[in-house]
């Protein structure tokens, strides 16, 4: 895990203080050496997750240039649609340098209020109508749930805190399973070519 914005570092501090087992390694890097650092880490690890934050930065662009999969979380709100459009433009620009990267758009922090479900549907329609190359709207949706805040505050992952019948657990597992399918599909297409 590379974490230029330091949110994972805060999570690890909480986890360490609570004496929970470490499930992954994390480091914080900023500046122009990030691409080289990622290339070095690829020799040691099968999977590297980079959390660049939601802003356009040199760290984000360096990560996008070497990424296999890019996950763009977006919130179903008018303000976030403008941010999403900017991220789509950036991913499109990066695709010239990294044509094999697959960008997945994940609807995140959606309201579970049944009266607001149309916001999610409207965003799904908006994204699907864009007909974007190398970008795919994920079918899974992460809803705003108190369990996420509770898990973070306790230094736990959502699957450590919740049982399988809870909605936050179910939302996350659907996302995780869908992501694994995308990774497997990419691996298979690389083996074919």
Automatic annotation (TrEMBL):
Gene3D superfamilies: P-loop containing nucleotide triphosphate hydrolases (3.40.50.300). Residues 23-95 form the AAA domain. It comes from the Bacteria. Transmembrane segments: none annotated. This is Chromosome partitioning protein ParA.
């Amino acid at each position: 895990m590379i974490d230029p914005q330091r949110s994972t570092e805060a999570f690890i501090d909480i986890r360490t203080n609570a004496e929970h087992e470490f499930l992954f390694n994390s480091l914080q890097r900023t500046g122009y050496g990030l691409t080289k650092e990622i290339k070095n880490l690829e020799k040691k690890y099968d999977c590297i997750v980079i959390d660049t934050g939601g802003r356009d930065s040199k760290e984000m662009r360096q990560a996008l240039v070497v990424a296999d999969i890019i996950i763009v979380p977006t919130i179903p709100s008018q303000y976030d649609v403008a941010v999403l459009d900017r991220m789509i433009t950036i991913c499109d620009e990066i695709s010239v340098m990294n044509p094999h990267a697959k960008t997945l758009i994940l609807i995140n922090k959606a309201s579970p209020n049944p009266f607001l479900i149309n916001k999610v549907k409207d965003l799904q329609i908006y994204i699907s109508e864009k007909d974007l190359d190398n970008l795919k709207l994920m079918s899974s949706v992460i809803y705003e749930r108190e369990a996420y805040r509770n898990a973070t505050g306790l230094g736990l992952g959502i699957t450590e805190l919740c049982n399988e019948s809870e909605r936050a657990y179910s939302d996350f597992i659907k996302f995780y399973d869908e992501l694994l399918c995308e990774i497997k599909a990419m691996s298979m297409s690389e083996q074919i070519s």
